[in-house]
Design goal:
Elements lengths: L1 H9 L3 H5 L9 E2 L1 H16 L6 H21 L3 E2 L1 H37 L11
Parallel strand pairs: 1-2
């Protein structure tokens, strides 16, 4: 009898492992993780126009809260993959936006440097 009890304790069947307690809550998707994903997509779309910086920073702030909520949810709150993809998209958008800012600055400086030699910035001398 003792051997039989140890066998069941050591090697539970898959049906015994899959049973949940009736009072356990149902797993629910995290709305914050979905919002981070949506903000990441919006940031990538608007990043070349430098408007992606705003949804990207909001997405990073919300991602931190969502990560804490997922940890506190102890498995009953899902959405880790959405959160991970959203954070990656946010960082990609920030890189694109910073690249656009640098490119616009270089083009602006080159256009200013090209115009500097065309005009005369001192009064003409009379000889």
């Amino acid at each position: 009898m003792l051997e039989r009890m140890t066998e069941t304790v050591i090697d539970p069947s898959p049906t015994e492992m899959a049973q949940r307690h009736p009072l356990d809550p149902e797993p629910v998707r995290s709305t914050k993780a979905a919002a981070v994903l949506a903000l990441g997509v919006a940031a990538v779309v608007t990043a070349p126009l430098v408007g992606g910086i705003i949804p990207a920073t909001v997405g990073l702030a919300l991602a931190r809260q969502a990560r804490g909520d997922l940890v506190q949810g102890k498995g009953y709150l899902t959405g880790v993959r959405q959160l991970r993809v959203g954070v990656v998209l946010v960082w990609i958008a920030l890189v694109i936006a910073i690249g656009a800012l640098v490119a616009a600055s270089v083009v602006g400086l080159l256009s200013l440097a090209g115009d500097a030699g065309n005009g005369q910035d001192f009064p003409p001398t009379s000889d």
